[in-house]
Amino acid sequence: YIPVNYFLVVLYSNKEYPGLYKEIEKGLILLYHICTIRNDGTMFLNMKLYKNKIYEADYIGFDGGYDLFIDKFINQADDYNSNNKFDKRNFVYPIRKEQNIKRKITEIDYNKKFGSFRSGIENQFSVLASKFDRFNNNRAAIQISDIKYYNLQFRVACILKNIWKIVEDYNIEAKPHHMLWYNDGFEFPTKITKLNYIFKNEQEINKEYNEMIDI
C-alpha cells in the first residue's frame, strides 16, 4: 500500500493529466506501464557512461556477453575527449573457458568470487522483476529509442522498491490514508480540482483535502 500511495500522491499528482479516466485510474495505469528495455551491449554504449558518470579509477563488473563492446566504449570515450582515460582494466567479467583447455584453479576461484559479487547485484534486479512485470525479461523485452525514458522509469521503480523494502524491514504499519487508493470509488484530491470522492459537502471536502495534503 505505502509505495503505491507514495507514487500516486507524491510523484503522479504533482500535475493533472487530461483523459476520460479518473485520476486514480490514470495513475495506476501509468504505474503499471513502467516498461523495460532489452539489456544488451547497445544499451550499454548508449548510456555514455564516460560523460562524467564513471572515472578512470572505477571498475564495471560485466557478465560474459559485454566484453565484445569494451573496445568500442574506449574509442567513444576517446572521441568524446573525456578527461578520464579508460582501458580494459576498467572492466571485469568472468574468464571464459577455451575449447579443450581446462581452467586453472586460480581462474575457477576468480570466477566463483566474481560470480558471488555479481549475484548480490543481480538479486536487486530479480526483486524489481518480481514487483514490476515490465522489468521481467522472461515475460517481455522491448526496445525504446530514447534512453532518458528508460532511466526515468527505472528510477521510479527503484524508489518504490526501496520504499517497499524499508516498510518490510522495519515493519512499518500501513495507515488508513495509505490504503485509501485501494478502496472502490476512491479518487485522490489534486492541487487544482478538489474532487469529491467520499464526502457530502464542500466544507467536509475542504477539510479532508487539507488533511490529505498535510499527510
UniProtKB/TrEMBL annotation:
It comes from the Eukaryota. This is DDE Tnp4 domain-containing protein. The lineage of its organism: Eukaryota, Fungi, Fungi incertae sedis, Mucoromycota, Mucoromycotina.
